[in-house]
User: Which sequence fits this backbone?
């Protein structure tokens, strides 16, 4: 497949960096917008591990478009890359995408705005785990980059730069319907009140009685169904 591009160059104010936006202009794919060569991260070339959930590009269908694309997910940068022959393009976070993998995994990823328990927010990709009439559940697998660290004395060793898997985070659609973005599901029972207010105590009792875990897909679904049964 050979894509034809409409290329625009944007000057980044206050820096010497230029960014290229490439918009596919070949009919069926004209809603996909890519950024190329924009503020590329300068990771240590010798870093252990990978910033990608899977290093290889996987066949996928984007936004229901019939033509197969090949994608991979950069969990450090929270970006989605697409391969076109010898080019690697990055999907713009300014648009929404639903990506169905065609590698037999039956996984679907979607881009959403989100808010974390610590107050941080942004836009990223999430794997869709469960959808009902009341709520949807997503997960975000994380990879964390740690820069190399030189030993401070002869009693220590140099630590290499590396990418390592972080704790998987879970997200739900807003139970109060005040936000269109995803909200991080609490990591601990004591934080349930941040999302569920008056239902917190019954939910805590239910979780304790059933021996449910706050980091289990099946258990989070049970907890959320319990909440909606009472509302």
Assistant:
């Amino acid at each position: 497949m050979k894509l034809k591009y409409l290329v625009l160059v944007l000057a980044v104010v206050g820096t010497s960096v230029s960014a290229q936006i490439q918009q596919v202009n070949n009919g069926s794919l004209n809603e996909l917008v890519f950024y190329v060569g924009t503020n590329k991260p300068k990771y240590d070339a010798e870093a252990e591990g990978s910033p990608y959930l899977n290093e290889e590009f996987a066949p996928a269908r984007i936004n229901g478009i019939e033509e197969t694309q090949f994608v991979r997910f950069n969990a450090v940068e929270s970006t989605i890359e697409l391969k076109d022959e010898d080019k690697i393009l990055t999907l713009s976070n300014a648009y929404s995408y639903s990506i169905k993998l065609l590698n037999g995994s039956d996984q679907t990823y979607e881009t959403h705005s989100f808010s974390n328990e610590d107050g941080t927010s942004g836009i990223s990709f999430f794997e869709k785990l469960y959808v009902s009439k009341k709520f949807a559940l997503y997960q975000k697998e994380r990879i964390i980059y740690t820069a190399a660290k030189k030993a401070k004395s002869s009693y220590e060793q140099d630590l290499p730069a590396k990418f390592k898997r972080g704790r998987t985070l879970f997200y739900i659609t807003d139970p109060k319907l005040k936000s269109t973005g995803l909200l991080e599901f609490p990591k601990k029972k004591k934080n349930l009140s941040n999302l569920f207010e008056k239902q917190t105590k019954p939910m805590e009792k239910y979780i304790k009685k059933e021996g449910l875990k706050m980091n289990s897909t099946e258990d989070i679904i049970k907890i959320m169904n319990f909440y909606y049964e009472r509302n």
Confidence is low (pLDDT under 50) at residues 1-29. The helical segments are 193-196, 200-210, 217-229. Residues 113 and 123 are 4 Å apart (CA to CA).
